[in-house]
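Now read the record:
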Amino acid sequence: MICRVILRASLSFALLASVAPLTYAQVKRDAQAMAFNATGLIPIDPSVTIDTLSNGVTYYIRVNKKPENRAELRLVVRAGSILEDDDQRGLAHFVEHMAFNGTRNFAKNELVSYLESLGMSFGADVNASTSFDETVYMLQLPTDSAAGLAKGFQILDDWAHGQIFDTAEVRKERGVVIEEWRSGRGAGSRMLDKQLPVLLKNSRYAERLPIGTLGSLEKFTDAALKRFYTDWYRPELMAVVAVGDFDKVQIATMIEKHFSDIPRVRSPRARTIFPVPDHDSTLITIATDKEATSSSVAIYYKQTEAPGGTLGSYRREIVEQLYNRMLNQRLYELTQKAEAPFLWASSGQGPFVGPKEAYTIGAGVKDGAVVGGLAALLTEAERVDKFGFTPNELDREKREMLRSLERAFTERDKTESARYASEYASHFLDAEPSPGIAYEFETVKQILPGIALSDVNRLGREWITDRNRVIAVNAPDKADSKVPTSAELLAVFDSVRKTQIVAYADTVSAGPLIENIPKPGSISAQREIKDLGVTYWTLSNGVRVILKPTDFKADQVLVRAYSTGGNSLLSDRDITVAGFGALAVQTGGVGKFSQIDLQKALAGKLASVTPSISSLQEGMGGSASPKDLETLFQLINLYFTQPRQDSSAFLAFKGQVKANIANRGSQPEAVFGDTLQATLTQNHPRAQPLTAETVDSISLAKSMAFYRDRFADASDFTFVFVGNFAVDSIKPHVLTYLGSLPSLKRKETWRDVGIRYPTGVIRKVVRKGTEPKAQTQMVFTGPFTWHRANRYAMSSLTAVLRIRLREVLREDLGGVYGVSVGGQPSFEPRQEYSFSIGFGASPDRMDSLRAAVFAVIDSLKSFGPTAQDLEKVRETQRRGEETSRKENGFWLSTLISADRFGEDPHTLLNGEAMRATLSAEMIREAARKYLNTANYVQVTLLPEGVGK
């Protein structure tokens, strides 16, 4: 479902498909009629066509115009790693990789190259994923190209039954997949290796992680790989999903053409549903690791998946959501106490693996506090069992749930095609109902009033039992960290049962957000850019406002506010002591409302504001529904005029930070990142990683004083609003809540604190960690002239280099899973740039792969890019602009950039003019300018004991 009120359901596909589609006019009437019929089946959304070809291939077609001129295609295969034979560990995933490395109609890497020529990006628009029970291929295509759309279905056809598994390509891709395996290794994966055999005891799932094993990936045969594809890529296990801006009949014809001739297998292997066996005793797994940075405890209560697909199961899942939302709120409130028993905690019910679901309650704790954290979790669950939730809690969560569904309903014509495609994939794989948001919204409105506290309160005792229970603990392996024994963990359950527990007290600050509405200001100056629909106001207190009404989203208004200054105005000595002002206010709340009380007061409203203070700016970011615009403005006003100080919540925040950094030095990637940061900033005091001592030195009083100073003068603030509003309707809120903000008419700007990139070539090696993997980052730096043409050249160079390095390092050499490439120009405090290239690989290949990177750079400097790569970049830019120009976030960032840097918005919006200047010479010159091999920092992470 679009809003995921239904988490999962297991009604058979045949049963769901047999329900006759509804017309839109029937939705409300049928929802009302069925709301109290627990056995009534949930229907299929009438907007989607679902059918099955004669050979068993299922297909889904839906016309949807968000985004315009795009189609989202999916090939969904009901086969994953659980079906692998013993000689095929990791090969379900490997088959997925080979889909991009040679098919009947696309040799080697031609498939990705072709899609890039259409303006689609590998990873963002073209991708695939493999799980235990399924494999899903994802493809976005432009629909204004008939040839491109037709090719898209040819690609899905090839993936389904046209992969060729060329021996040379398999050999190269073997290296890529091994690097993917390698990149995932670390403390987390090692602890998971210890815990899976317990969590999934006596289950095949414990031995079938999709990534496979290193031994299998190194030694599997081509025959084993092909056998998996032949056995499981069968028509009756496949679905084709097409959602987008196209003609439905044409799409149905294409599906028939490409998929009806896939032959059925005469004697197919059985598609077994593998069990996760039940157990009466409590299983306990305690995993520690020397590189682990945090401690946690979780309790899993495994259950057989409940039958779904009916209104009765739908109602139950709503009740389950209400239970978990209310308990999660209580757990969160505990984290805001000075002596919080845990750093974070959560409660949830949902899919586990295979035919099992689970209720899970868990927490992150300080080192040595596992027993206390477990006791606190169980105490809160016991508190609900004994006393239940309160009427106010249930009322708030009902309002929140209904408001979320209302937003989805309001946005029903603006829903992205990718969301529908994912929904239909879940329908095929898990029989998850898909009735459409109109039906869902009406049904929930009927169901919610009838849900009583007694319905919710009894869930805990149904879920929390001694049977099918697993306790999982993760912790750092270090001498001073007390890790409990299994006996100590079990003793906590008995101890909590004997504890005297009192009922939860639900305290709420009553009254409006603002008691006395401020006196409005006035507009002292205004102008418009009519062709862009942008209005500029200057208010009587100096506040500047930029307004851009849109209809891209029906239920969204975005806001950003900014002013120059930021933390740069603090001395180096005070940067830590007083530099946490925005975080202090975020934890403290506003006016008479604590942060927790504010959440409660805003229940049922869609409005949020977050203040921030960065190096060079202070500001705010937020969003709201058009119907909650006044609430948004009131929050903005309060964060300026009435920030609240909460010493208990701030102590809790400091405790969380200290716990999170306590073991930072044990994590190889953290040490690597700190070394890179220290090198690039020449060990500047403002760029040092946090320590326990620096956290202790943070002063709440000084942080609050700095925050109040930064927001004491609104006269140099600019507010930008983009979204679904009318200028006339937003005007009273602007004048009342922004026009009344304090104004001191200060003239100030940021201060250059003296952070400078180093010069020359600097190479450093960090030796940390035990896994056989390495990582490197090369950062080129230098001066930059801030101009649109230069920014475009750097952006285009980044795109070209990303393509070339992927082709060379991944496709040709099989040495990496991915390569990160990023060019970042900056305007303030100095016009300069950084250009980074990074990748992970086997330690023994790091030198040769790095040499390959420099060879590509040298080639670009000498010869520039190929005409083909240049056209790929140009088309990708064009397609990206085509969709982004109809997104509120794009307009928000564009208007801010134009305003901050004194540029004409028309220039920033004229992408076509910039693309016309793109040439091989531009890229060649950009490479020479920004990839200066005489001026870069190179930091490499190697395992301990390697390369000495």
